[in-house]
Design a protein that fits this description.
By secondary structure, the chain is mainly α. Helix content is 70%, strand content 0%.
């Protein structure tokens, strides 16, 4: 599944603002851990 760029940015923003781990933000926003890891490397 391809997520819109705005959603990807939101995930990364929430992670940074709330100081969450990758697993925590993935669970909260219902996305895969691997997806979040990939977005961190290439937003």
């Amino acid at each position: 599944m391809t997520y819109p760029i705005l959603f990807r940015r939101k995930v990364l923003s929430v992670r940074e603002k709330e100081n969450l781990s990758i697993a925590q933000v993935a669970k909260r926003l219902d996305v895969g851990v691997a997806s979040v890891m990939r977005w961190i490397k290439t937003p």
